[in-house]
Amino acid sequence: MLTPIAAVATLTLLVLVHELGHFLAARAVGIGVERFSLGFGPPLYERRIGGTAFRIALLPLGGYVKMVGDTPGAPLPAEARGRPFLAQPPWRRALVAAAGPAANLAAPVLLFAALFMAGIPALRPVLGEPEPGSPAARAGVAAGDLVVAVDGEPVATWEAVLRHLRAHPAAAVELAVRRGGAVRHLRLPAPGAAGEASRGLGLRLPAVVGGVQPESPAAAAGLRSGDRIAAIDGAPVASWSAMARVVRAHPGEPLRIRVARGPEAVALTVTPETVPNPEAGRPGQPATIGRLGIAAAEPPPELFTVRRLAPGPALAAGLARTQEVGRAILHGLGQLFRHQAPAQSLGGPIMIVQMAGQQAERGLSDWLFFVAVISLNLGILNLLPIPILDGGHLLVCAVEAATRRRVSQRLLETAQQLGLALLLALMLFATYNDILRWMGIYPSP
User: Fold this and answer.
1) What is the crossing angle of helices 311-337 and 364-382, to 10°?
2) Looking at the annotation, which residues are catalytic?
3) In 44, 73, 143, 326, which residue has its Cα 20 to 30 A from 266's Cα atom?
4) Which backbone phi and psi does 396 adopt, to 5 degrees?
5) Is the separation of the CB atoms in 119 and 365 below 8 Å?
6) CA–CA separation, 138 vs 191, rounded Å?
7) What's the CA gap between 138 and 340, in Å, rounded?
């Protein structure tokens, strides 16, 4: 029951933010707004304020802002107030078009800031066994070390450690770690031109299975959610990263694993499938690696701390988190366009509904974080220069401003029809992916 409620609430909030951006921008430049609707179809509630009919409609599948004079050839209603949209210069129409995506890009800053003020769980920087030969291993990092400072700056979360390392990718870093009640100072070398920003540091996460992909080597071997991988080929496994290193190094080779399943010890044999190595081409990296098809379980509560910030720092942290998530979205889009990521990873409405329900079940903070991420996605995608999207309107306004001529209505209609066809095709493909994901043919996100 929670899933449909969470899905409707997510969509309604995103649409409200987006359309409110268009509405406020239109009013700011004097363009009249006939109707502001949440949902489509027959109105359930409607009230007219200042010449605008505010409506809640039957079908909560989106929303729209109907502006005065936004339809060529249509007569202006007698009660219309404000300037007609199509009669405005390109800069005014561009401002209105950009305001919707801008609102979706700005909302996550406030949502993340609110979460930081309320307090969100963050992983403590308790380190696992470092990657062999990595800067962390050469520095003398040991499993169980707790990072307390980086270059003299106190840190309390794993995110803060990574942020500092990314900010100084080519410099050696001084780590202060607590080990056995004493604080030790370690010098972490620079990773080199082809190294990872983390420099071989990793969290000490237990090797507990959180999920098993259907029809994967793990599923075929009989691994289950909740299993703790205790040993591989007789060698004890201390952490998830240690287990992952062994699996990656043995593609296509049978591995004897011992798992703790409740009070029982279960012996299994699993053969990792051979997959391309995303880091192939870097020094020392093989072309292929092994993969089991499992996901890690949620870290234990003792690895978490609650981070609360004052309003000013929370707003700065909200902006930083928005930029971080936005860069990740753009990176993912770039990989799709360059065919470096599988098209099967593209998700549609079914996946969004499922994830909205899952995040709502985990709590309000997780759901608001999810809303912020989807809002960023919506804002970025709407800025793509595809006719019928806001980015397409911006492109038209830019062409008209450069040529000082209006784009013909016939050309606009043709472009919008093509844009609509492209969007429908993408939606159908994403829904097809969702269905295969639901059937277990594709892995879940």
Assistant:
1) 50
2) 19
3) 143
4) -60, -45
5) no
6) 11
7) 32
CA distances from 232 to 182, 229, 244 (A): 33, 8, 11
CA dist., res. 295 & res. 38, Å (int): 38
User: Residue 120: is its pLDDT beyond 90?
Assistant: no
- For 123-188, CATH gives 2.30.42.10
Find the length of the chain: 445
The answer to whether residues 240 and 226 touch, using CB atoms and an 8 Å cutoff, is no
Domain ranges (residues) in the chain: 90-119+309-445, 123-188, 209-302
47, two tokens:
């009230």
Gap between the terminal Cα atoms of the chain: 21
CA 422, distance to chain mean position in Å, is 23
Could you give the C-alpha distances from 85 to 70, 95, 112, 217, 405, in angstroms and in order?
5, 11, 34, 58, 16
Q: Do domains 123-188 and 209-302 have the same CATH topology?
A: yes
- Which residues, 6 or more positions from 411, have their beta carbon under 8 angstroms from its beta carbon? none
Q: Which residues pair with 146 in a beta bridge?
A: 126, 178
- Domain 209-302 bears CATH identifier 2.30.42.10: yes
Which CA distances in Å does 124 have to 52, 151, 203, 324? 51, 18, 8, 20
Q: How far apart are CA 289 and CA 217, in angstroms?
A: 14
Helix (H) or strand (E) holding 40: strand 33-49
Place 198 in a pLDDT band, splitting at 50, 70 and 90: low
389 pLDDT exceeds 90? yes
